[in-house]
Write a structure and sequence with these properties.
With 228 residues, this protein is an alpha/beta fold. It folds into 2 domains: 123 residues, Response regulator (Rossmann fold, 3-Layer(aba) Sandwich); 93 residues, Arc Repressor Mutant, subunit A, CATH 1.10.10.10. It has 8 helices and 11 strands. A 5-stranded parallel beta sheet has the order 2-1-3-4-5, with helices on both faces. A 4-stranded antiparallel beta sheet has the order 6-7-8-9, with no helix packed on it. α2 packs parallel to α3 and α6 crosses α8. The radius of gyration is 18 Å and the shape is elongated. It starts with a strand and ends with a strand. 30% of the residues are buried. It comes from Thauera aminoaromatica S2.
Length: 228
Amino acid sequence: MRLLLVEDHAELAEWVARSLRHAGFVLDVLNRGDHADQSLRTERYDLVILDLSLPGLDGLEVLRRLRNRESGPDKPAPTPVLVLTARGSTEERVHGLNLGADDYLPKPFELAELEARIKALLRRAGNQVPLVRLGRLEFDTTTRMAVDGQALALTPRELAVLEALLARVGRPVAREALFEKVFEFDADARVEAIEIYVSRLRKKLEGAGVAINTLRGLGYLLAEKPAA
C-alpha cells in the first residue's frame, strides 16, 4: 500500500512516518499543500493523510481539488482521505466531510488509533492488503517481507529501500531518490550511505530469486533473476 502524508510539522511527520513504515506501508511525505496538489495530479495513492493547516495551499483546498479531479465518468475510484487537524469545530469537520474527507482524526492522537483508522478506510475502499511477489520474495503490509514464507529480518531503513525498489520493479530508482525516502529526516546523513543499505539487502536477498542491479548514472533496479 502506498500512502501520502501531508504534514508541515516536521517532528509530527517524522513520528508518523517512522511508525507507518515500520508497519509496512510505503509512504511519501510532503510538507506543503501546493506540493501535495501537484503530486496528487501525477501519482496514484491508496490513501492520503492530510493536515489542514498547510503552507502554500490549505488542506481543504487540496481535498476539494482532488475530489473535483476524481468526479465524473471513467474516473478512478476516489482516494480515501484521512484528515488530521487541531481545528476542533463541528462546523469545520462537517465542511471537510462534505468536501469528501473520509475520516477525521483530531490532534493529538495515538499512533495505534491512526493505524487502525487507516486500515479501516482501506478495507472500506476495497483495498485489501495486496501480496506482491517477485521471484521467491513476497511482500504485504501485514507480513512484511518474506522469502518462501519465512520472514526477512530487515532494519527499518533496509525495508524502506526495498519498498521503494518494489514500487518501481523493472525501472531504475535514482540513488538520490532512495536517499530522500530513507534519510528525509536525518540532516547528517550522506547520499553515499544508500550504498551500504543496498549492499546489505543484496546479502539478505541471496537465494530470493531477485537482484538489485546498479545502473551507472541511473541508480538501482530491482528485477527477477532469469531462470537458470
